[in-house]
Amino acid sequence: MECVHCRGRMERSVTRFTAERRGYHVSWDAVPAWVCSQCGEAYFETGEVETIQRALSAIDHETERMCPAA
Question: How many whole angstroms separate alpha carbon 4 and alpha carbon 12?
């Protein structure tokens, strides 16, 4: 697999994922991904993306319960 940014070689590894959402910050330190050995660009497979989206959705829901809009 080749990096679309620099044409470096992609290797299966882990990388950090962060998100700024609706008044909170989420950070995971070791999410499985394809990471470019040359520039460090990361690509997540569908399963990881779906897991991240489910987790963020759950946090959104709990945040709305904790801090309802006025």
Answer: 16
CATH of domain 10-66: 3.10.20.860
Query: CA 52, 34, 41 angle in degrees (round to 5)?
Result: 90
Strand order in the sheet with 24-36: 10-21, 24-36, 42-43
pTM: 0.81
| 64, 24 contact by CB (below 8 A) | no
Give the residue-averaged pLDDT of 23-52.
Answer: 96
- The full set of domain ranges for the chain reads 10-66
